């Protein structure tokens, strides 16, 4: 298949910088958008299926437009690449997306280097943000794996990429109902052609297992054996991952009734189970003392939630002292400087003053003193 050379111009707008990759049915390029100020970088995907007497190209064009429409709908989320354009030119299909400056997750999950529980929990939370959004649109990714997750260099967020446009177009042309996905990350029912949100949940569980063990899932007989080899995480987190990777799809997080079709009109989905995952991850973040090895859940007593406004900020030793006005009372909150940047996005006192926050604690002295030990204990409700 002929490709585009450096300097090539398509749609009289996108100037090719270099080739990024190639598949059986197309190529991907980095390009500059000459119609935007400062000519920002973008990603151009070129699809060029072979024509045939049976209208192969026409079928490809129809499916491409369908996929592009879905990507356009998803593009409103900050952790999903924006769709800039899609068009047909000289018997080639083109899809133009936002360029994500960062690295794929597969570069972070390194063989022989197991992740710690705190890192796993943070990763779960980051991936669940865009994945939950996709599922709310009644769309299943189908091919969730480390190569399809990118960490944005600007803010460290995980971005969900590659929604299978090439795979859908090319594979459906070859054979209707061809299984889409990557071996190892697909649950049993996906090999049979079934597509449901629980398939993505299973794949996410496998990704987490590979990070926890520092090994590829193919080195184990399955998720249960893999998790049996892990001894540095809490039972709470282990049980979450076990439920995500159940062989029986009915026992996993996700809809109770699995559906093969994920693009058609369907009833409003029930995200109760997904919310349970997020809630459980939040609980572990707040309740766990990561200084202990192995890490154990440390939630004791009744947890109290306080919402108020910061009306005083100062520094003392290695702590940030915050005065919080809430419920006609003043709460004195001590926050380690090590987590101040992560919580407030800044270490400048003037930028922290006046913010509305919510604090979770199960230990508070009589004079309303609170110690924040984990970032998840204190959240910003709005920016000043």
TrEMBL record:
A GO term for molecular function: ATP binding
SUPFAM superfamilies membership: Protein kinase-like (PK-like)
Q: Please give the InterPro entries that the UniProt record associates with this protein.
A: Kinase-like_dom_sf, Prot_kinase_dom, Protein_kinase_ATP_BS
Residues given in the record as ATP binding sites: 45
Q: What is its EC number?
A: 2.7.11.1
- Entry's CDD domains? STKc_PknB_like
Annotated ranges, domain Protein kinase: 14-285
Asked if Acetylation is a keyword of the record, the answer is: no
This chain belongs to which protein, by name? non-specific serine/threonine protein kinase
Q: Which organism is it from?
A: Gloeothece citriformis (strain PCC 7424)
